[in-house]
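Tutorial sheet, problem 5. The two components below are modelled jointly, 533 residues in total.
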Amino acid sequence: MSRIIVITSGKGGVGKTTTTANLGMALARRNRRVAVIDADFGLRNLDLLLGLENRVVYTAVDFLAGQCRLEQALVKDKRHPNLVLLPAAQNRTKDAVKPDQMKKLAAALAKVYEYILVDCPAGIESGFQNAIAAAQEALIVTTPEIAAVRDADRVVGLLEANSIKQIHLIINRIRPAMVQANDMMSVEDVKEILAVPLIGVVPEDEKVIVSTNKGEPLVLSETPSMAGNAFDNIARRLEGEKVEFLDLTPTHDGFFSKLKKVLNTKLF
Amino acid sequence: MTDSPSSSVPIVPQESADLDRDQQVRLKSEGGKLLLLLPPEGDGGEENPAAVFNWEEVWQQLKQRLDAGDRFWQPETVVHLIARDRLLDGRQLQAIADALTEAQLRLKRVYTSRRQTAVAAATAGYSVEQQSSITHLNQSSQESGQVMAEPLYLETTLRSGADIQHNGTVVLLGDVNPGGTITAEGDILVWGRLRGVAHAGSKGNTRCLIMALQMEPTQLRIADFVARAPETPLTDYYPEVAYVTPQGSIHIVRASDFSRSRGEG
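Model answer (C-alpha cells):
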C-alpha cells in the first residue's frame, strides 16, 4: 500500500521544497521506492534542489497531454535509483492541470512507488487544490513566525474540509537561542495554535543554503548537520519508528555546562 | 483583561452585501429528519461573485458543519436537501450525498426551485420537489424575520479563514484561532480559547454576551460596539464574559463575578 503525502504550508518560502527533496532522498536511502512530484506548475524548483534540472526532458503536463509515457516523464535520481522526480512544466500555469488529472497521475505512480511526495505550491488557489487532490496524508511545514503559522492554520482547515485527516506538523528554521531569549515563537507556541501532531523540528542551518545551491539534499552530506539529521528523523518517524526529538537547547557556554562537559570527557 | 474598560466605536452598518452572505449552510433537525439548507444563490452571482457563496465555499461550509456536529446524529438519519435557487449539477449532488454518507446520513429528497437541479437530482434517483422561485422568496423573507434560529452547536477548532454566521446563539466546543470569525445574532459561548473575532447580537441586540474560557480575542463586537483586547497579553486567564454596559461600551468581567455585577448594574 503506497502512501501519497502532500507537503504544504500556505505561505511561501518556509521550506516545502527543501523538505520534499530531503524527505524523498532520506526515504530512498532507507530502501523505499519514492516518487516526488513537483506540483508547482510554472514555478518549478524541486528539480533544482535535487540537482536534476539538466535531466528533465518531459514533464507531468506532457504526460497528461498524452505526449509521452509516464516512465518517460520520470527523472531517475543520479545518486539513488529508488528515487524518481516527476517534474512540473515550467512553461504552463497552475490551470494547465485539473484535480482529477492529479488523482490519475498519483494513482499511476502508486502502482510502482511506496511513497509519493507531492510538493505543493504556496497559496490556496487552484495549484493547492490540484496538489492535495490525490493526497491521503499531509505534512504542514511552517516556520515559527505568526504569518506562517496563521497561513498554516488556514491550510489545516482546508485540508480537513477536503477529508485529509492525517496531518502532521514540521516546524522549520527554528533558532533555539532566539526561542530561549523569548524573541521567537517556541515549538509549544506553534503546537498550541495549530493543534496538529508534531513530526519534526528542523533548526535553522546555513548548510541548507549551500546544499540547495549545489543541488545536493542535505541528508546525503558526508558531514552530519543538525538540519540533515532532523530531516532524516522525520523520514524515520514517517516509517513508524519512534525517534526522540533532537535536543535543540542552545549550546551556551555557562560555567556549569562547561563543568559538565569536562566531567563527561574525564569519565570516558 | 478582567474589568478593563475598552474603547468602543459604533460600526458602520453594512447593508446589502452582508445580508446576502449571512446565510450559510445549515443543518436543522425537524420531525425525525435532518434538513440541509444551502445558502441561496440569488441573481447577484454573475455580476458580483463576492456577494454570494460559490460552490467551493458552500462545500467547505458543509464539510465543516458535518465534522463539527457528527456526535449528535443518529446513524442512517434521512436528510432532505433544501437547495433553494442554487444550481447543482449531478457531480455536486453526488459530492453532497457522499459527504453525508461519510457522516452516516442518507440523502433522500431534494427541494429546489431550479429546473436543472431538479433534473440532476431526479437522474441521480432522489425524490424531487420543485418549488417555484416565488415561494422560495417568501420563505427566505420569513426566515430572516424576528425569530431567532435554534442555537448552533459546533465541536471543532475554528481555524484561520473559518467564518461561522448564524442567526441565533453559537456554542463552540473548541478554540477560535486568530483569523477565525463567529458572527451570531444571539450569544456566543466558546468553551475554549477565543483568539479570533466574535460578534454577538449582530442584528443590533446589545444585551447579547460573549463568553470564553480564555478570552484573548483579536476583536470583540456586540451589536454596534467594538472592543480590542489589551495590547499586552495577560499572564493568567479566567473564564470571562463580555457585555455592553449601560454607558455604551464593552466590558469584560470574570465569569464568577458576572452574575453579581449584572444584579447591581
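Marking note: The beta strands of chain A are 3-8, 34-38, 75-76, 83-86, 115-119, 137-142, 166-174, 198-203. Full credit if you identified this.
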